[in-house]
């Protein structure tokens, strides 16, 4: 096993050598609010990475990964972000479903699905939120019943990222009739290319549509495609959310730092930095970014110890609010120019897209309100919120 610095140098050199030619144009492409950018080319890039063994680096070698240590995984995500490499397209499979299958899946499920995630041959999306059960996941109404040797799934999911580009969806559905809240749920793996699945893009203020509605009308999946025991889906789903906030968040911080640096340079060029209020907000944003990194390191340490605590909710509230406020600061730095589209009919600048899309940061992956309830009820022991 190489040292952290050797590992860091290895991925840095590989990216420098391979993020060239046709792939060089992918630098900085994709990511939240920009998933439409060069998707096919980014998929080809990620498969190129897979062929060289640079996907799923933190997975055990027995499952096709590199068995990288926690420190090496941090180095990988930081170097990937520092190279301005394109946003990943297989991250939901690699960072969410894969670890979930390792923890709760059967040997047959691991053998069937993990190799195709490593090779980026199958893409995944997450079927959690519903129109009446966004951050309140326990309120879901999608139901599934066992019909012979298949599950029959009926319901509606919403805000399903990259559903149109995905092959499979991990779906939380109610499988015990009459059950309520977090009881009687199951975690199912559902193929999307089949009758009974209708995917409709949701067009956003940014002009993009990486979010989707997914309508399931008797869609089917094999009986063995339930992860964990039937009715035990809440525990599995919560574990997946824990994996969502792992080491890759440090790569996210590098992206945030790049945005703040570019915004500071813009403020210096257009004179906005001469305004003491703007200057103070830029300084506070830098301090906030350091706090985000500290929270991320605490979370990673707790996840590695197998006991993720309130750091997950604290970190999510903090970075989401910070990023939304950065978008607002960007508009103030741009001044009147921020009100003008870059071109017809609706060509947005990067700052305008940041401002608009970052409004969703405090909603997706657990809204700020729900995260505060979690901290209040489960950490501080305060009385539970009254529910109708």
UniProtKB/TrEMBL annotation:
Cofactor requirements of the protein: FAD
Domain called Acyl-CoA dehydrogenase/oxidase N-terminal: residue spans: 5-120
Lineage: superkingdom: Bacteria
Acyl-CoA oxidase/dehydrogenase middle domain residues: 125-214
Cross-referenced Pfam families: Acyl-CoA_dh_1, Acyl-CoA_dh_M, Acyl-CoA_dh_N
Residues of the Acyl-CoA dehydrogenase/oxidase C-terminal domain: 231-380
GO cellular component terms given for this protein: plasma membrane
GO molecular function: flavin adenine dinucleotide binding; oxidoreductase activity, acting on the CH-CH group of donors
Family per record: Belongs to the acyl-CoA dehydrogenase family.
Protein name: Acyl-CoA dehydrogenase
Organism: Streptomyces oceani
């Amino acid at each position: 096993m190489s040292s952290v610095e050797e590992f860091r140098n290895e991925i840095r050199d590989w990216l420098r050598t391979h993020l060239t030619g046709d792939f060089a144009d992918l630098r900085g492409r994709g990511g939240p609010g920009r998933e439409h950018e060069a998707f096919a080319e980014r998929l080809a890039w990620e498969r190129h990475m897979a062929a060289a063994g640079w996907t799923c680096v933190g997975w055990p070698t027995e499952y096709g990964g590199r068995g990288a240590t926690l420190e090496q995984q941090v180095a990988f995500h930081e170097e990937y972000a520092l190279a301005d490499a394109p946003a990943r397209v297989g991250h939901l499979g690699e960072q969410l479903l894969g670890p979930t299958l390792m923890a709760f899946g059967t040997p047959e499920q691991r053998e069937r699905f993990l190799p195709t995630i490593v090779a980026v041959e199958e893409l995944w999306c997450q079927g959690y939120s519903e129109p009446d059960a966004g951050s309140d996941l326990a309120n879901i109404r999608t139901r599934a019943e066992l019909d012979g040797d298949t599950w029959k799934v009926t319901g509606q999911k919403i805000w399903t990222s990259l559903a149109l580009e995905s092959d499979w969806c991990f779906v939380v559905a109610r499988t015990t009739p009459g059950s309520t809240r977090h009881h009687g749920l199951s975690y199912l793996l559902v193929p999307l290319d089949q009758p009974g699945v209708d995917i409709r893009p949701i067009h956003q203020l940014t002009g993009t549509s990486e979010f989707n509605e997914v309508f399931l009308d008797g869609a089917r999946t094999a009986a063995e495609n339930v992860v964990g025991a039937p009715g035990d889906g809440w525990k599995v789903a919560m574990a997946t959310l824990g994996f969502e906030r792992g080491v890759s968040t440090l790569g996210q911080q590098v992206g945030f730092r790049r945005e703040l640096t570019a915004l500071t340079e813009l403020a210096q060029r257009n004179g906005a930095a001469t305004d003491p209020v703007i200057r103070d907000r830029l300084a506070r944003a830098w301090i906030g970014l350091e706090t985000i990194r500290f929270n991320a390191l605490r979370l990673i340490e707790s996840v590695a110890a197998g006991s993720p605590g309130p750091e997950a909710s604290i970190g999510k509230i903090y970075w989401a609010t910070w990023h939304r406020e950065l978008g607002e600061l960007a508009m103030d730095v741009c001044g009147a120019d921020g009100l003008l589209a870059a071109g017809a009919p609706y060509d947005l600048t990067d700052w305008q897209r940041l401002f608009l899309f970052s409004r969703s940061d405090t909603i997706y992956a657990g809204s700020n309100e729900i995260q505060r309830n979690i901290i209040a009820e489960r950490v501080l022991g305060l009385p539970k919120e009254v529910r109708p």
